[in-house]
Amino acid sequence: MSRNGISPEDKILAVQKYLDGKISQGGIASRFQISKTSVQQWIFNYQSMGSEIFFQRKNKRYSKELKECAVHDYLAGKGSQEDICRRYGIRSKGKLQKWIQVYNDHGELKSSGTGGASIMTKGRKTSFDERVEIAGYCITHGHNYAKTAEEYSISYQQARSYTLKYEQCDVEGLQDKRGRRRTESEMSELERLRAENKLLRAEKERAEMEASFLKKLDEIERRRG
């Protein structure tokens, strides 16, 4: 049971019924005697991080690096607060808003939280093939850097950097520039095509997922209308 006495299973079922158009946000709030804001947070968390988020009992840790990347992305206009929270696995807009305020007040963003999954703030060495796979995974999963970093045991900054480098410079941007860089002739045409094909598949899959999601939203709105 959660601290407010509502089980994770009940929260998940309520959100799923809402997404299926079987109950309104007000109906859920009335049933569990909570505010509509709390219901909206359930829906947001479910869509951003999946049903497993409701089973996490400890406070989630947020590294200094994650906070800075999230704030910088928002201030650079790379998405709404909802987009940034989904991308970095942040549980609520309120947390992001506090970090933005601290940053704008020239305060220092520090790692926070006392529990939850460990966060890898230091990067690790990766191969070209790994970087291609990481960028593809991140694109497929809606540029969710937090999820990508956890999946591949890399830092948030690496997940973000590889994805942006691919989007800005294609597969060439994923080559390791430290030390002697491989010349264009050394990177065979087959290697290039395999890498480009893998990333194009990821982009196509993401586009299909977005189209399916929008179609589902349209169906929900029609049922409610």
Keywords:
mainly alpha, 225 residues, 61% helix, 0% strand
Question: How does this model look, in words?
Answer:
The protein has 225 residues and is mostly helical. Helices cover 61% and strands 0% of the residues. It has 10 helices and no strands. It has helices spanning 8-19, 25-32, 36-49, 64-75, 81-88, 93-104, 128-140, 145-152, 156-169, 189-224. The protein is globular and about 60 Å long. 28% of the residues are buried.
Q: Whole-number average pLDDT?
A: 76
What's the number of helices? 10
| Structural Rg | 20 Å
- SS-derived structural category: mainly alpha
- The SSE order reads HHHHHHHHHH
Question: What topology does this entry show?
Answer:
Blueprint: H1 8-19, H2 25-32, H3 36-49, H4 64-75, H5 81-88, H6 93-104, H7 128-140, H8 145-152, H9 156-169, H10 189-224
Helix pairs in contact: 2-3, 3-5, 4-5, 4-6, 7-9, 7-10, 8-9
In short:
This protein is 61% helix and 0% strand.
